[in-house]
Amino acid sequence: MHQKKIVVVAALYKFISLPDFAEIQEPLLSFCQEQGIKGTILLAPEGINGTIAGSRQAIDAVLNFLRGDTRFTDLEHKESYTETPPFERMKVRLKPEIVTLGIPEIDPNEKVGIYVSPQEWNDLISDPEVTVIDTRNDYEVSMGTFKRAENPQTQIFREFPEYVNEQLDPSKHKQVALFCTGGIRCEKASSYLLSQGFERVYHLKGGILKYLEEIPAEESLWEGECFVFDERIAVRHGLEEGSYELCFCCGHPIAEEDKTSSKYEEGISCPHCFDSLTEDKRTRQQQKWKQHSQHIMSD
User: Fold this and answer.
1) Which residues form the Rhodanese domain (predicted)?
2) Is the pLDDT of residue 229 over 70?
3) Does this model's pTM top 0.90?
């Protein structure tokens, strides 16, 4: 029986001092390309962050290559699997930060919140004394979140400090529980809260994805779906693929109910971008969609 080739998708990050981060770029890029790996890895003075895809053998080779550096010996990663390669090329980019908060002096290597396992998370966020905060952006929160969670309504992560300064008070919010997709944003967010005088700051270890992987749906306090930054768009419990698609025009996630809107036209607009479409842009978008459809039919 013919079996489809499975592509391994590995997500990884680690906060660690990398003063030589620029020198790592070229050897890492070359090695990934030699292995046929595709994806993006960010390097910064504060560490490494990336998602890569390839064969089982190639992913293992790159992880072993990274862990050959003593600073990455304990590098953790999460895996998912797909039949369709999610990336077109391999990039290793140099950045000021591996996740952009906009305050470089915030260093999770120096101080970070208390890690909470998925198994302990339900009890924590059910405590009325604990303020539960979703650190993701507004469009992600709109697709799903935990019960009792507050939505900072940020458009980008750089806006999170402003939300903290305006809406939270260390003297009132004695216990704060943070969560995000895979855990990396909470490293920065928890470090920032601690720098602002908050006493006890918790964050979900492994993020929402680890929770959905390990906690049965019947025991879960998660509601909705979780946005992911790959071709699946969203996942449910057990990391099963969700129901969302991306608008061909603006790239915003769209649910089935969005398609019933008078503002939805396949390939042209959705409720999130309809009002910003000029006639000229609509005409260009119609042409793009026509070319895309012809390309799909010819494959």
Assistant:
1) 126-220
2) yes
3) no
Q: Counting beta carbons within 10 angstroms of the beta carbon of residue 217, is it exposed (0 to 12), middle (13 to 18) or buried (19 or more)?
A: exposed
Q: How many CB atoms lie within 10 A of CB 20?
A: 12
Secondary structure letter of residue 258 according to DSSP? G
**Predicted local distance difference test score (pLDDT) of residue 4:** 61
| Rg for the chain, CA atoms, rounded | 21
**Domain at 7-94, CATH from 3.10.560.10, 3.40.50.720, 3.30.70.100, 1.10.730.10:** 3.30.70.100
- What would be the CATH architecture of the domain defined by 114-224? 3-Layer(aba) Sandwich (3.40)
Q: Where in the sequence numbering do the catalytic residues fall?
A: 180
Closest by CA position to 44, among listed 13, 18, 78: 18
Write the pLDDT tens digit of every residue in 138-180.
999 999 999 999 999 999 999 999 999 999 999 999 999 999 9
Terminal C-alpha separation, the chain: 24
Measured between alpha carbons, how far is 74 from 97 in angstroms, rounded to an integer?
Answer: 21
Question: How many H helices and E strands in the chain?
Answer: 8, 15
